[in-house]
Design a protein that fits this description.
Elements (H helix, E strand, L loop, with lengths): L10 H10 L2 H18 L5 E6 L5 E6 L1 E2 L5 E4 L1 H9 L4 E6 L5 E10 L4 E5 L20 E6 L7 E10 L8 E4 L10 E3 L5 E10 L2 E6 H13 L8 H17 L9 E4 L2 E4 L6 E8 L7 E9 L3 E4 L2 E3 L2 E9 L5 H12 L17 E9 L2 E11 L7 E9 L5 E12 L1 H13 L2 E2 L2
Antiparallel strand pairs: 1-2, 1-5, 3-4, 4-7, 5-6, 6-7, 8-9, 8-11, 9-10, 10-13, 11-12, 12-13, 14-15, 15-25, 16-17, 17-20, 18-19, 20-24, 21-22, 22-23, 23-24
Length: 428
């Protein structure tokens, strides 16, 4: 898909690597790659999502055939516009002969970013989907349609599943590019190991594992390949189940803490969090701030500016030796009152935040708290939530904390925010 981030694979670096590889290894590798391309490239059509009125392309991506009956797999994010607005968009594939054929979406797995498609079969040859995972370091081959350059093959290396992820992803050393989304990454025998989904640049790319592909195909077959009656309702159901599941145990049991200005605050609440800290001490400024932020890399694509599954919390300590108490409080309050629109989305997708604010005694201190929700207009029962708390009454020292959740049920958001806040203690 065009949204897949471009990778800055430097030509000079590639040439340097080739220069130190023995000639025999170069010939062997290029020969195998050529064979893989010749055997399997025709099984990877291009997907185009078109704006219905003009017929112009809105999104391009890739897919692959999974049987001889006209069924294909791609990424959900490739066809998300069509799922959200079937009245505005239509989709087609361009096969290896350049023939355009209409496609329809049968079902989706929004959590794993997959979609099952159907088209009229025309002697299409499927790819086999692998059952297990390859050995670490195995050479793999990604196929797809980057930019508008035609079918392309990219060599990569299998680096296993990401160690700290809520939703499994394969780490591939290889340069995926825009338009390759939804295409397969295969081994030398043509077995699909994963589906191209995203890249972090510098040849760090990610795949949806084949296990999720097999599950989606099995679900389609079990329903006799009939389309899901209401795709958006099914997306909402999947997200509710997913978010309720991972939030159920969040901030329960033993949770590590970090201490800021004598306040014990939660940190790295689960293995899939990454936590970072930094100090903001600009020269000449009469106040200082230290931040501690924990984020999960697991997000669920809904649209180009809207992501569910955001799970983030962090703390900020403010101190000043120069500001008066009145000026410090003004700074502190201004920071606490900042808006929440950084989460993305538009009025077409979401209501405005509705907030409730109160002062609460917790952990030996008084806190100003605010809990805000905004609803998803077309995904029933889903909300974005922000909880914030600021410690009061400590003169020129202040500690704030914030928890942000997206694409969750209101009940899970409230329970999670309550457990989060109960973890905070002022140790004096």
């Amino acid at each position: 898909m065009t949204r897949l981030l471009a990778v800055g694979c430097g030509l000079l670096s590639a040439l340097c690597l080739l220069a130190v590889r023995p000639a025999a290894a170069q010939d062997s590798l290029s020969g195998e790659t050529a064979v893989v391309f010749q055997r399997y490239a025709a099984r990877v059509p291009k997907i185009q999502v078109l704006e219905s009125t003009s017929g112009a392309k809105a999104v391009t991506g890739s897919a692959f055939y999974v049987d001889t009956k006209g069924h294909l797999v791609t990424n959900y994010h490739v066809v998300s516009k069509l799922v959200a607005h079937p009245e505005r968009y239509r989709a087609e594939l361009l096969d290896s002969a350049g023939t355009a054929r209409p496609v329809r979406v049968l079902r989706v797995d929004v959590i794993h970013d997959l979609a099952l498609l159907a088209t009229d079969p025309r002697r299409d040859v499927p790819l086999e989907v692998a059952v297990g995972l390859p050995a670490q370091g195995r050479r793999l081959y990604s196929l797809g349609h980057p930019f508008e350059l035609g079918i392309t093959i990219v060599e990569g290396t299998y680096n296993g599943l990401m160690a700290h992820a809520l939703t499994p992803r394969i780490h591939l050393t290889g340069a995926l590019n825009p338009g390759m989304s939804g295409g397969p990454t295969i081994d030398g025998a043509g077995r699909v190991v994963g589906v191209n989904v995203s890249t972090a640049g510098n040849e760090v790319s990610f795949l949806v594992p084949a296990t999720a592909v097999r599950a989606l195909i099995a679900a389609g077959a079990a329903e006799q390949w009939t389309p899901t009656p209401d795709l958006l309702a099914d997306v909402a159901r999947q997200l509710r189940t997913y978010s309720d599941g991972y939030l159920r145990e969040m901030f329960t049991g033993e949770v590590p803490v970090t201490t800021m200005a004598g306040v014990a605050l939660p940190t790295r609440a689960a293995p899939f969090f990454n936590c970072w800290a930094d100090a903001d001490q600009e020269e000449g400024r009469p106040w200082r701030a230290v931040e501690h932020l924990c984020t999960s890399d697991d997000v669920v694509f809904l649209s180009e500016d809207l992501w569910a599954g955001v799970l983030e919390f962090g703390h900020t300590m403010y101190t000043s030796d120069e500001l008066s108490s009145t000026r410090f409080y003004s700074l502190y309050q201004s920071s606490f009152d900042d808006d929440y629109q950084w989460l993305g989305g538009s009025g077409e997708d979401l209501t405005r935040f509705e907030c409730r604010t109160r002062n609460v005694e917790q952990g030996g201190a008084t806190w100003r708290t605010v809990f805000c929700l905004r609803a998803y207009k077309r995904l029933e029962g889903l909300y974005d939530a922000v909880f914030k708390a600021a410690q009061l009454g400590r003169g020129n020292v202040g500690v704030m904390t914030r928890l942000t959740l997206s694409g969750v049920t209101a009940e899970s958001a409230e329970r999670t925010a309550r457990r989060y806040f109960e973890r905070i203690r002022w140790e004096r």
